[in-house]
């Protein structure tokens, strides 16, 4: 499973942030690693300098082998919390997705 990390121009996407986000995503989605070709992490600050309680958006896009990409979003005031929120949602989505494939 390849993990790709991206940020908008309002978030400084340094190596520490990338490593932290990749660690969170890997810990949540590791059990699906053999079934996913790539996971993309996109972090964006939707309010810019105005701030706000849920202004950081983390979009996760997972690409199951041989299937269509699936996407979730997590919002929070901090990047780490937004990544955790999106990772939890993606974990639940993939459990449902692969569970349905198994029953068919």
Automatic annotation (TrEMBL):
Pfam annotation, one family: Ribosomal_S30AE
SUPFAM superfamilies xrefs: Ribosome binding protein Y (YfiA homologue)
Record InterPro entries: RHF-like, RHF/RaiA
Protein name per the record: Ribosomal subunit interface protein
Species for this entry: Blastomonas fulva
